[in-house]
Amino acid sequence: MNIGIDTLSLYVPRYYLDLGHLAAARQVPADKYRRGLGQEQMAVPPPDEDIITMAATAGLAALRGSDRSTLDRVILATESGVDQSKAGALYLHRLLELPARCQAFEVKQACCGSTVALQLALDHVRLHPTRRVLVVAADIARYELGSPGEPTQGAGAAAFVVSARPRLLACDAPTGSYTEDVMDFWRPPYRDTALVDGKFSVKMYLTALQESYQDYLAAGGVPVAQLARCCYHLPFTRMAEKAHAHLTGTAIEGDALTAIAAGMSYNRLIGNSYTASLYISLAAMLESTSEDLSGQRVGLFAYGSGCMGLFRSATVVPGYQEVLQTERHRQLLWERQPLTVADYQRFYATQLPTDGSTLSWARHATGPFRLAGITGHQRQYERVAVAEKAAPALPVPPVAAHAPVAALVSVG
Ligand code: CAA
Question: When you count CB atoms within 10 A of the terminal residue's CB, does the N or C end of the chain come out lower?
């Protein structure tokens, strides 16, 4: 039985910061961010956007035109949850008008929570082939101002429906994993920025990649040379180059570059979105590759600090192009508003009160859901009218000519 990803939808905040401006403000050469990290821009959420509003918007698009009564579960994967007890998926359940019999819960294991949720969804559909599961990944990556992690911030959401007879990707059975208790990146409940041992986190990422790939091979997976494309968790896009070179033992040029280039194109403009990052890369890869990938295998690697690595492959379903939301996603990227560094820092500094008092946010540009404010410790979400425009054929915003791979929005 084929089980896998039937639809895949993204959402990114309506504002971004050009990293050239951040580099100037931090007195760092812009090439350090552009070439050294492989990032051009980072998505910045306004005060009235949080992981719930982003997740709901992506989830709404993933469910468009489908029968909600066949959904058994909505699973939210996030490491920037809004409550220590209540699952954020409960808000999604209401905002997406899901049936009462549809379960709603949250999973967490840093950036690989979404891939754990995918596995839970696959297992559920294998047992109940007529049912479907909605997985939504949403995060806001936040580091201290002026820290090495600052240019790797970002935000976004990805939502996908898992079903039997999927129209996008059929997931292969072999999977590989690697788990070890380490302190490379973490965030205690009293902090709103991550603590990170940056260089160690890159080392653990590569260790988890190698070990989980070997485990995948031992489970009957195919060698990386037989994977037409590879998508990686992308804390910053240079990480894919490091990862693919580590896995293949080759320089990132020719076929090796083709295997990863398209998958970096959206993330380069969005930044890190933790749980959503791998699935934003997957959407970018499918939507930015002009070659017909039908029947070809793609590799997917998820890394969650702390740490766990998960490696798997999937086969692209013939006719997948019909299901892609390419124009919607490009429009989302194209229509964002640029921020100055001062505006970014103003957004960054906003906080909800923690004493139970009431606060209403001024309205900024958002998707169809916004966080109106808070009252009595309860977040208030509202639906807003967002004009649906006819989607023109838009390119991903142009990138600097010196960028090694970002210009490859449409690659063979
Ligand atoms: N022109 C071109 N390149 C330049 C340059 C310039 N002027 N100046 C520096 N560079 C290059 C460096 O040579 C380096 O390249 P290599 O990696 O190939 O050596 C690169 O820019 C980064 O520079 P530094 O080595 O000086 O590193 P940094 O102090 O800026 O820190 C980082 C980089 C550790 C990734 C930091 O951004 C960080 O801590 N980020 C957050 C943690 C993170 O993303 N970890 C990734 C793995 S963990 C994970 O994946 C989970 C997750 O989502 C967080």
Answer: N
